Amino acid sequence: MKKYQLHCIINSGGVILIKITLDRIMFERKIKVPQLVEKSGLNKNTLYALQKNEVTRIDLNTIEALCIALDCDISDLIEYTPNKKDTE
């Protein structure tokens, strides 16, 4: 299976426009990384990096595994905040 990646978009001011919201979801559902490793089959280091929002890209297979494990939509995991200057 071919892997595809979603890249973090950073504007010219260095502001991240796309954020992974895994930390919020895990907090709301009271789930810890070891539990999510078990449910998703993903590597714990990958999950810790996603939880801390320390990634610049993410495989679509990873998003799919998270959506299945957490029974959520991609829009629950990824948040896009447009730069106010860019929308004016």
Give a written overview of the molecule:
The protein has a two-stranded antiparallel sheet. It has a two-stranded antiparallel ribbon with strand order 2-4. It has six helices and four strands, in the order E-E-H-H-H-E-H-H-E-H. Mean pLDDT is 83; it is low at 1-7. It has helices at residues 22-29, 33-40, 44-51, 60-70, 74-77, 84-87, and strands at 5-7, 18-20, 57-59, 78-80. The chain is globular, with a radius of gyration of 14 Å. It is an alpha+beta fold. Helix content is 49%, strand content 14%. It has one domain (20-81): 434 Repressor (Amino-terminal Domain).
What can be said about this structure in brief?
The protein is α+β, with helices and mostly antiparallel strands and 88 residues long.
Topology:
Elements lengths: L4 E3 L10 E3 L1 H8 L3 H8 L3 H8 L5 E3 H11 L3 H4 E3 L3 H4 L1
Antiparallel strand pairs: 1-3, 2-4
Structural class: alpha+beta
Low-confidence stretches: 1-7
Order of helices and strands: EEHHHEHHEH
From the 3D coordinates, which CATH architecture would you assign? Orthogonal Bundle
Shape: globular
Characterize the largest beta sheet: strand count, sense, and whether it forms a barrel: 2 strands, antiparallel
What's the overall average pLDDT, rounded?
Answer: 83
CATH topology: 434 Repressor (Amino-terminal Domain)
Strand arrangement within the widest β-sheet reads: 1-3
**End-to-end Cα distance:** 41 Å
